[in-house]
Amino acid sequence: MSTFAAVFAPDGGTWRGTEVDLGDADAIDDITDLMLDFGTESGSDMTLLLIEADDEWFAVVRVDETGSDPRVYLSDERVVHDHPVAGILSEAGGLGSPAPVESAGARPDPRPDGDDDLLSDLGVDGEELRSLSVGGGVLPGDVLAVVAERSGFADLLDTMRL
């Protein structure tokens, strides 16, 4: 399973970011602590975590300040049974817990879940985020590129993904 994860925080008029390894995360506290530590280093109260796995799904996690609950958006709730990080995010975000989907050849459409308005103030409203999540032919990495473009850190994300 190939997973890309990076945390970003605004630093004045620019953004800082770093790729992170979520392999040791057992609970949402592990993930939010990592995000808050990076935000503190960057001098920011807000951090975003972008996750993309296997060109199948993506997630966005937002923490606005120490002590606040993380806001979570998952592009396809069906992956929570197959990907440990997605399971952690699902529990933390209060997302639904769907039954595993039996594969009979064609995959049904993705089922996004979570706080789809977590990026509205950064230029991606909930309706657009959900539309991108279920749009045919749009890869998770492409959706994260749109998020980064609108938020102002597209070049930083591109350099990480090379």
Automatic annotation (TrEMBL):
Report residue spans for region: Disordered.
89-122
What protein does this entry describe?
A: tRNA adenosine deaminase-associated protein
Species whose genome carries this gene = Nocardiopsis alba
